[in-house]
Structure formats: structure tokens, C-alpha cells
Amino acid sequence: MVTGNQTNVKEFILLGFPGSWYVQTSLFMLFLFMYLLTLTGNITIIAVVGTHRLFLTPMYYFLCNLSFLDIMFTTAYIPQTLAHLVSQSKSISFLNCLMQMYFVFSLGCIEYFLLAVMAYDRYLAICHPLHYSSNMNSTFSSLLAFGSWAGGFLTVCVPAFLISRLTFCGPKIINHFFCDIDSWIVLSCTDTHIVEMMYFTLSFIVVLGSFSVTLVSYIYIISTILKIPSPQYWPKAFSTCSAHLTVVVIWYGCSIFLYVKPSKQSSLSMNKVVTLLNTVMTPLLNPFIYTLRNKEIKDILRKAFCAT
């Protein structure tokens, strides 16, 4: 993707989280703990759903996709971050940096698409319950999941290609803990207008497009629930989508701040903090949110722990 005469910079320095040895070690332990907790929580969700026939429904199929995605998402950058926290060298090669950027943002796009698909699934289940089984059959749910994965990987191809054609003359310090698109744009010594516009356009389409699908779905969901004549049934109806709604609020709250902006002239330090909340906390919290708000999963986990 990159040839030798396209850039004078062969590697970059990921600034990460500057600080003393004590700060670096503390962050290493914190990130390692959160990473292991993320892996444990999401693997548990996949194992529970995959081994019980009770969960052979589209909702849990999409949940397994989300858990697998969160494992891949955190693995795309946390091991590199951990290595840099305990290493004297903070360097990363041009190609590795480009590949990390591609996978982090591709997997991020997939998360937007999957959350929108899950909202649509809840819309069909609550607003059209009699036709849910025929509308959201195994073939259609598989196509929606495949479309989310394929769409995410394809979306980032164009900006990744454009970035690979930029010239980097130095400095080569990236003020982030992973290879972020904004940081690359700031370091380029050539015109980045096309890259910025392409990045903004795709961010606008992916973030606000998927958010619109999610928002419209929940407007119909809430409207349908409120039409139930007996208010005592409202909590039970809301409980079927409360976990997903919680994840949506956390994810989009950070994402809209980060990516829907027309210029690279923004605070990279602030971006780093919000990115940390979005890319580390969301995959960590997802399995616990779904577990705590799902009676069936809680019952199975309780029985499993009591049996041991």
C-alpha cells in the first residue's frame, strides 16, 4: 500500500500517556486489568449464548456479534498500548500504524452498524410481534450481520488509501495512544483537504446515519409501549431493550463529539480522553450491562457459579 518514495518518515512515535515510571506502571496495570475483564465478559456472553438453545434468537445472535466485535476492537490497539507503557521504545512502523488505524476505525464503524441493526430488531419485536419471526428470520438476520461487518471494513478503505498517499516529512510524534486519523492529518506536510473532507463525510454518514436508524426505531418502540393500556406492563416491555439503549447512549455520546466535526483543528488531548472512554469503557461495560439487565443470562450464570 505504501512505497518507499511516498514518505520520508518510516516510523512514528506514539506519545501515549506521558508521565513518570510510577504513572506508566499504574496505567499498564489498569489497562491490562480492563483488557482481561473485557475479554472475560465478552467471551462469557458468547459461551453462554452459544451453548444454550434458549438464546437461539436474532437478538442474542446480534449480541454475540457485538461481543466478538468488542474483543477484536480492544485487541486492535490495547496490546500495542500495553507494550509501549512498559517499553523504552514508543515507535511503530508506518505500515503497522496504517493497519492499526484501518482496523480500529473499521471495527468502530461495524459497531455503529450493529447497534442500528439491534435497534431495528427490537423495533420489529415490539412493534410487530406477530410478524417478527417471519420478518427477522435466520437468513435476514445473517444478512444484516454480514452487511454490518462488510460495510465497516469497506467504509474505511478510501480514507486509509488516501492517508497512505500523504507525505510525512516530520515531526513524527503522534499525540495519542494509538494511530488515530486526526493525528495523522496533523502530521502531514502536504495538502490534507481531500482526506479531511472524505473523513468528515464518511463520519457524518456512518455516525449520524446509524444514529438516525436507532433513533427512529426507538421513537416507534416508545410510542408503541406507551399505547399499552395497562401501565404495569410498561417496565417489562422497556426491559427488552433497556440494555441496548444504555449501550447506545454511552457509545454515541462519545462518538458524536469525536468524529462529527469538519476540521482537524481540535484538541487532540481532549480527543485522547474521550477516545479512552469510548474505546476502552464501552467494550468493557457492554457484557455487564447486558448481563445485569437480562434475567435469562443472569439465571444461567447464577446456576453455573452455584454448581461450581
Topology, number of strands: 3
Class, according to the CATH hierarchy?
Mainly Alpha
Order of helices and strands: EHHHEHHHHEHHHHHH
Helix content: over 70%
Strand content: under 5%
Rg, Cα atoms, Å:
21 Å
The main sheet comes to: 3 strands, mixed
Helices and strands: which structural class?
mainly alpha
Fourth-tier CATH superfamily name: Rhodopsin 7-helix transmembrane proteins
Mean pLDDT: 83
Taking the alpha carbons of the first and last residues, their distance comes to 52 Å
Describe the structure in your own words.
- The structure is a single chain.
- The protein is mostly helical and 308 residues long.
- It is 72% helix and 3% strand.
- The protein has helices at residues 21-50, 58-75, 78-85, 94-127, 132-135, 138-155, 157-164, 181-187, 193-226, 234-239, 242-259, 268-292, 295-307; strands at residues 11-14, 91-93, 173-174.
- A 3-stranded mixed beta sheet has the order 2-1-3.
- Helix 1 (21-50) packs antiparallel against helix 2, helix 1 (21-50) runs parallel beside helix 12 and helix 2 runs antiparallel to helix 4 (94-127).
Structure summarized in a few sentences:
It is built from 13 helices and three strands, in the order E-H-H-H-E-H-H-H-H-E-H-H-H-H-H-H. The chain has 308 residues and is an all-alpha fold.
